[in-house]
């Protein structure tokens, strides 16, 4: 074998060995890249699942917040409407009381409330006050009850108030007080929202 042939042979062997080693390096690099890609896919899937869960929780929270806000708005509107209806009802009650105050039954009511006050006071002096609109009824009320009856300096719609001064007692059978108490206690029922 000539020197040239030997060099050619050595060159071929070196090339073959370099190709084999290069292929081996490329295969190792490919395997490493495939492992990195597989790990990346697993991480990406995990992050995707976490992102979906987080977005699901956030969406539920936003939905709940929107629902709570809508419920509060609905309740506020309902309370406002109930308050308007309540005021309308009591306006009608005041109108009915004005009509009632023109009847004989109202006069009997005043007499009865004054007599009840007298019984409650016993031997203690009691002063009764009627609404300014009932000034014309005072002579009849005094005649039927023998009570000490005066005109109030305040409008309390109707009814009567009694004062036992030395015991610091106010007997308040004024319509203003009675309507006020009923207005405060009044609630809508019927099984709807907010009913007891």
Describe the structure.
The protein has helices spanning 3-100, 104-121, 138-145, 175-185, and strands at residues 127-130, 148-151, 159-164, 169-174. It has a domain at 101-185: hypothetical protein PF0899 fold (2-Layer Sandwich), CATH 3.30.2320. It has 196 residues and is α+β, with helices and mostly antiparallel strands. The chain has four helices and four strands; from the N terminus they run ααβαβββα. A four-stranded mixed sheet has the order 2-1-3-4. The model is unreliable at 191-196 (pLDDT under 50). The radius of gyration is 48 Å and the shape is rod-shaped. The relative contact order is 0.08. The chain is 69% helix and 10% strand.
In summary, what is this structure?
This protein has 196 residues and is of the alpha+beta class. 69% of the residues lie in helices and 10% in strands.
Helices and strands, with pairings:
Blueprint: H1 3-100, H2 104-121, E1 127-130, H3 138-145, E2 148-151, E3 159-164, E4 169-174, H4 175-185
Principal-axes geometry comes out as rod-shaped
Order of helices and strands: HHEHEEEH
Major sheet: 4 strands, mixed
Average of per-residue pLDDT values: 92
Roughly how many Å is the radius of gyration?
48 Å
CATH topology of the domain at 101-185: hypothetical protein PF0899 fold
Low-confidence stretches: 191-196
Strand content: 5-15%
Q: Supply the CATH superfamily name of the domain at 101-185.
A: ATP synthase, E subunit, C-terminal
Keywords, separated by commas or semicolons:
about 200 residues, four-stranded mixed beta sheet, 4 strands, about 70% helix, disordered C terminus
